[in-house]
């Protein structure tokens, strides 16, 4: 092996692959190099930042020969923000990259060759302005001016930006209004180092179908410290003309005095409106509060859920268990074609939302359980002898607990529909199910997070004996 390169040394490398976290990967001098902001096909000049035994990390200095798939990022702070790891890659190539990542993970980790059953990835016609929710930290710049934006990757340094191109255009006007109010009335932004200052974050949610907008200020203190809050509310309400379809319908504060990375506190105080907004996915209405979990890309969520519903193959007589159900988004979708749907979620507030959403839509063939899927499902199966024709799982990034998977196998549903945001843990769980009587019949990726390395996947598994 060649001599290790020294820190800050410049070298050239051709990028031949990309990591799951979006760094370009190249080989030079017997080393594997990870180069952020480089894409497959680039020849780059890079500077050594950190060297390990057989690999190293380097900073992109210059693109010497651009990849044929390289494009100029539309966002002026794309590199410093780091939230969109693939913005320098053409959208068509982003979709190919994501599909290949899923295919390779299923084969390498799970031993599942999905070449024959992989259906075309669901991309977006317009991969911008798709996020219905954004959270902006507030702080000060070096000159002491109140700013907002996003944290740079792996830091708590705020990259100033009020108009993220993934978010809705209304965000910029709302943030400018709040920032102006803070400056006028001397309201300080939060400082992590000293745990002083009032305004920590602002969360904005928009219902794409309803046009309703929720604004939530996260405060490190009491409501009374938000001076002239009545004036701020009036200013916010004047921002949008209702005739255009968009309207701020509720303004709330979340009280969070903890020294924590968790953004929202548990205490919510209404300043205006009901404290929630409504939105619609596929004809189902959902009520959304600041604490509600809801997919951030409603356009693609509808297409993903339609895929899951198709994979479930419901005819109206089936009992379906929906694990990790959140506020019941998939559950209510499935209930339209199932005899009964049972949803399980560990977060009590989410289950309250799920039940409220069922009532809002007049859906009566659903039942929701609070608890961990790996506890509720075995308990219901062993004590109450429950059954399932179809099981749908949409777990967090860590995937399903093995006890949950074991219970699914013992319940022996005809089909399992697995919706995943992490193809590595998906591959591991598919291997478990395939070793115990199931086979993967259909796989489809859905690009919910354009410009980033993340991708959702829906899989349909069928019992081999059914």
Task: Tell me what the structure shows.
This protein is α/β, with parallel strands linked by helices. It has 3 domains: 10-70, OB fold (Dihydrolipoamide Acetyltransferase, E2P), CATH 2.40.50; 96-125 and 297-463, Rossmann fold, CATH 3.40.50; 133-281, OB fold (Dihydrolipoamide Acetyltransferase, E2P), CATH 2.40.50.1070. It contains 10 helices and 22 strands. The strands form 4 sheets. It has an 8-stranded mixed β-sheet with strand order 6-21-22-20-19-16-17-18, with helices on both faces. A 7-stranded mixed β-sheet has the order 9-8-7-10-11-12-13. Strands 1-2-3-5-4 form a 5-stranded mixed beta barrel. Helix 7 links the parallel strand 17 and strand 18 (366-370). The relative contact order is 0.10.
Keywords summarizing the entry:
single chain; 466 residues; alpha/beta; OB fold (Dihydrolipoamide Acetyltransferase, E2P); Rossmann fold; 8-stranded mixed beta sheet; 7-stranded mixed beta sheet; 10 helices; 22 strands; 31% strand
């Amino acid at each position: 092996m060649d001599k290790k390169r020294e820190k800050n040394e410049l070298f050239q490398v051709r990028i031949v692959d990309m990591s799951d976290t979006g760094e370009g990967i190249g080989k030079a001098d017997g080393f594997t190099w990870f180069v952020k902001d480089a894409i497959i096909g680039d020849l780059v000049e890079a500077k050594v930042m950190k060297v390990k035994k057989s690999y190293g990390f380097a900073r992109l200095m210059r693109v010497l020969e651009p990849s044929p798939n390289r494009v100029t990022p539309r966002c002026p702070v794309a590199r410093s923000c780091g939230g969109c790891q693939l913005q320098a890659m053409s959208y068509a190539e982003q979709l190919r990259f994501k599909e290949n990542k899923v295919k390779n993970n299923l084969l390498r980790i799970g031993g599942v060759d999905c070449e024959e059953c992989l259906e075309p990835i669901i991309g977006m016609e317009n991969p911008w302005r798709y996020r219905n929710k954004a959270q902006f930290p507030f702080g000060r710049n070096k000159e002491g001016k109140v700013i907002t934006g996003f944290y740079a990757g792996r830091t708590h340094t705020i990259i100033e930006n009020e108009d993220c191109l993934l978010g809705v255009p209304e965000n910029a006007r709302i943030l400018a209004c709040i920032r102006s109010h803070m400056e006028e009335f001397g309201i300080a932004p939060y400082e992590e180092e000293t745990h002083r200052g009032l305004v920590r974050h602002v969360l904005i949610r928009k219902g794409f179908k309803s046009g309703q907008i929720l604004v939530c200020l996260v405060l490190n203190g009491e409501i009374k410290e938000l001076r002239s809050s009545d004036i701020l509310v009036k200013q916010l309400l004047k921002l949008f003309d209702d005739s255009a379809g968009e309207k701020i319908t509720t303004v709330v504060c979340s009280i969070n005095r903890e020294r924590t990375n968790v953004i929202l506190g548990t205490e919510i105080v209404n300043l205006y409106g009901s404290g929630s907004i409504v939105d619609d996915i596929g004809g189902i209405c959902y009520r959304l509060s600041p604490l509600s979990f809801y997919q951030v890309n409603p356009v693609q969520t509808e297409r993903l859920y339609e895929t899951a519903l198709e994979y479930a193959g419901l005819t109206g007589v089936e009992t379906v268990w929906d694990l990790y159900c959140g506020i019941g988004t998939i559950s209510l979708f499935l209930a339209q074609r199932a005899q009964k749907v049972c949803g399980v979620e560990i977060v009590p507030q989410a289950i309250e939302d799920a039940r409220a959403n069922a009532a809002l839509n007049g859906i009566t063939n659903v039942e929701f359980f609070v608890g961990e899927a790996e506890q509720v499902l075995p308990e219901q199966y062993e004590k109450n002898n429950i059954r399932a024709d179809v099981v749908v799982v949409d777990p967090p990034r860590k995937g399903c607990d093995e006890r949950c998977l074991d219970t699914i196998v013992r319940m022996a549903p005809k089909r399992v529909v697995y919706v995943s945001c992490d193809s590595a843990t998906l591959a591991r769980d598919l291997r478990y199910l395939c070793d115990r009587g199931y086979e993967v019949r259909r796989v489809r990726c859905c690009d919910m997070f354009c410009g980033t390395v993340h991708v959702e996947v829906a899989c349909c598994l069928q019992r081999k004996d059914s």
